[in-house]
């Protein structure tokens, strides 16, 4: 019940790369980052999946613009285009020139524009959560790994504790409670707050893998000659961390980040599935998919459009993450 | 070795203690009052207050917590509203399902075990197998197929795969019975046929991840010096790959598998919900919804025990598989 | 290479999902007739209360009847039974003082169950009631049921350990809502609560300090199920009640499966309503409403004689209603469960605003959003059509989707700002979204405030809750106006929390009128409640009536005899059988 796949796998996959990332046999004298970039550019998969991601992000960013051009808002209802049972009239769930992906059964909202806005919400949540967890993980992991001793033991124990707390159960218990505590009883809970709570829940549970990864890397680096040398020459903690350690482990962190984003996207959907998450007013992938699944038999188009979009998005992220790892770590190349 | 074990166990107990305290506090922050749920209409506040008193919900938090913990260790007397005396390890009485929580756990734990263990065997075999094959046949169509499979699996969600499988195999083709749990002791065939969809969908998603992981590990190991040395010494391919490389490559897989299985044993909420099977995970979620404190505590603690145990076991296994690892 | 995998995987999913997506929906055949009229009487002829019940046409003995439901039945202990599933399951293993003879089409007759008649009002003032117990009624172990065991059943309902059940009889006997302190069950085992006596083994006598004309109805609830004191296992009775009905508990895996076997000691000749057709009843719990409906539609193996207890979910209505072959396997009926947009009258004091809300409502859109006419039927009255004496009227004709001109006229240019509290559960989220859009179109400004699903009911039952509007639901315990209007609109009952009067409506004239009607004999009350209903709406408009729930259940091809209870609106099993 943990944020399972983020945990563990990303960690082990990345660890296999090890701290040898910066290849030292550089003849031409290009920086490791530059080399990785060249390798990435040569990888067709990386380019295609990267392009897809860019496209999705543009769509998300341009949502209000698209709404203007499309002429339909995410809350507009078109119930006159539904039959008596609330099912969309016409072909394939009401697909038409006006409604490109058809209409939601029941409320009759436009699926296309809600998908665009849902993409925006979900990508924002996933990116924000990934950034926060990465930061938390790097800070805690570096501290634990570099300073060691009792601090290491404490951070390790907190990591174990976090892993032992059941994520879904806590999320289920925490989310409504937080809303009650933070909002007046007659105030509408702003969608931004719902989003923030979700990001917070992800942050609390998502940082452990990065922390473990970074800790392992730092411990390995700590004993290396160049670090010893820097320490011997009296470098302070800041210098050690920012100039000596982090520059040498940014590659695995980046990979773990790119693999964490899709996990948060699917986790948002998983939370909707057990009834936690955003309210109906905020369009999101999770809620759309969760609601649409029941219509698999009666309105397959309703399942198809959100389903294929989230699949394509997550798939593109996974492809890109893979390619990125290959580029950063030539040893494990295909 | 002994010192390591003692240290690990101490830390494990400390973790479980912290989990229990956090869960307890979390419960009292819930918006749900378990007692009002007991009268659907005509609620009388004074009467409800008496019920709260009798259930001990008005006692100070510390008293309630100590009572619960004491129950686990020595058993305790819960009063007539909660089924009287409750023997150790007493997990309390659920005033929502009206039974001893230990009975609930005894019923739902085998369900979760029956879902997770066969699924884990399946996903490990499938995942590691695929990973090995695609690493050894790197660059061939077999490798591509395996990568495609694993990336697809890693990008799909269980509720989606589950819903489609149910629709196709159960409702439309009617090849399989409706998912349900029968004890393996009563009827192994029914047990398997009722759970096979859950196994397959879990295995599909998880094996994808393991295939990616073990492929990467295997490639890594194959380029290691000791493998090249073994090959150069003239050892036969199967022997090198089977004994030396596999062994080194599988170590991280074991780590992840241990943690995954440990986590999954704490409840596979989504799987259980998708297939309509009442296991530990769904019981925990229902308990949170109903504000059923004793059941929340028991399910969360058991889940935590699995995770913590898995952690310790992984460390031990690690040492057993990879002689380079020394336990301190 | 990898992008090709994307295409292939996408294509595969597309194929699966697109199956059957190509037919055009023209919207034909989506109307459903849900009208029916309720008639209700109390049997005057003792013959009506005698068994055996008339045979069900086409019924045969044998087989296992399965009932699939998502959540377990909350209580099986009759004294604690109040949920609908419990009320529908209970008659299989428990008998009461009185019960409803129900033709499933709205025709109801209250008859004696364990009692020979539905009670006799000794002094014709509703204060003293006597019930004579039938001969030959037995428990599952063959021991006879006498007035003592029925009295003991009522006595144990005073036990504060045994929460959950209805509290009418207890409160009437003790003449206070604090009945459990007035008479302490645990300290008085062996004696009976005040006012309850058993002059002899065949007689049960109630004496009240106030007129309780609804007693014959109230004793049709499971509180009056008998229990021998020796068989009382306290809270554990909930998992294995002691049977007095045609079936007994054979096995109960709590929360998973409940198996009922025939009770050989039940005698059909004493029972006016129940049958004993199937060998076994099995309740299984777990599958979601979608899964349960899908199973039963698939009609495979044991599911052929199964019923999905949850109604067909909105997502599957189009499939079920659109399939002519399934028509014979569905039961459809409006229920007595009435839903209102409750207006908090303590906050919204302007009658014009309350009336404007009534004119503004778009019932057609709301029902569409919920899944159409098989899910809900529009309602313009306080009481549902299934109430005895019901008279239809529409005090604020809003048409199918709202009368915006009238709203404008009543609001006179102002834009009332109202807060609508909705639970964060799936159904109310949809209703909330729909209502907000609907009312804002009409010129209101609506703020949606989510309330955690589990806490919503508790919150709106608090007198000083902070919201102006919320969705309320009331399903009466018997189809009389007396169990609806005084409960929901008598302002004198308002207390700090736990209110059923959630509109917090309080008007002395209306309160007095209720007292007047309550003192009448139950047979005369019907039309009077209907008149009061219309008067409250016309003069005060304390709520916006929205819809009644519609029961739409699907069963397997071999399941027969199930009908929707005219009292509770859920599938009843007294006539159920398995086609051989």
TrEMBL record, chain A:
GO BP terms, alphabetized: transmembrane transport
Residues spanning the signal sequence: none
Protein name per the record: Peptide/nickel transport system permease protein
Lipid bilayer topology: Multi-pass membrane protein
Places the protein is found: Cell membrane
Ranges for domain ABC transmembrane type-1: 119-321
UniProtKB keywords: Cell membrane, Membrane, Transmembrane, Transmembrane helix, Transport
Membrane-crossing residue ranges in chain numbering: 46-66, 123-149, 161-183, 189-207, 301-324
Family of the protein in this entry: Belongs to the binding-protein-dependent transport system permease family.
Domain of life the protein comes from: Bacteria
InterPro entries xref list: BP-dependent_transpt_permease (IPR050366), MetI-like (IPR000515), MetI-like_sf (IPR035906), OppC_N (IPR025966)
SUPFAM superfamilies: MetI-like
Pfam families: BPD_transp_1, OppC_N
Broad class of the protein's primary localization: membrane
TrEMBL record, chain B:
Major localization class: membrane
Superkingdom of the organism of origin: Bacteria
GO CC annotations, alphabetized: plasma membrane
Keywords in alphabetical order: Cell membrane, Membrane, Transmembrane, Transmembrane helix, Transport
PROSITE patterns: ABC_TM1
InterPro entries in the cross-refs: BPD_transp_1_N (IPR045621), MetI-like (IPR000515), MetI-like_sf (IPR035906)
One BP annotation, GO: transmembrane transport
Topology term for the membrane: Multi-pass membrane protein
Keyword Flavoprotein: no
Domain ABC transmembrane type-1: 109-318
Protein's UniProt keywords contain NADP: no
Membrane-spanning ranges: 9-30, 111-133, 145-171, 191-211, 296-321
Family assignment from sequence similarity: Belongs to the binding-protein-dependent transport system permease family.
Protein name, as recorded: Peptide/nickel transport system permease protein
Organism of origin: Micromonospora avicenniae
Automatic annotation (TrEMBL), chain C:
Lineage top rank: taxon: Bacteria
Keywords, ordered alphabetically: Signal
Residue runs in coiled coils: none
Domain Solute-binding protein family span(s) in chain numbering: 110-491
Record bears the keyword Signal: yes
GO MF annotation list: peptide transmembrane transporter activity
Signal peptide, first to last residue: 1-23
InterPro entries in the cross-refs: Peptide/Ni-bd, SBP_5, SBP_5_dom
BP-aspect Gene Ontology terms: peptide transport
Matching CDD domains: PBP2_clavulanate_OppA2
Keyword Signal among record annotations: yes
PROSITE patterns: PROKAR_LIPOPROTEIN
TM helices/strands, residue ranges: none
Gene Ontology CC annotations of this record: ATP-binding cassette (ABC) transporter complex; periplasmic space
Protein name: Peptide/nickel transport system substrate-binding protein
Source organism (scientific name): Micromonospora avicenniae
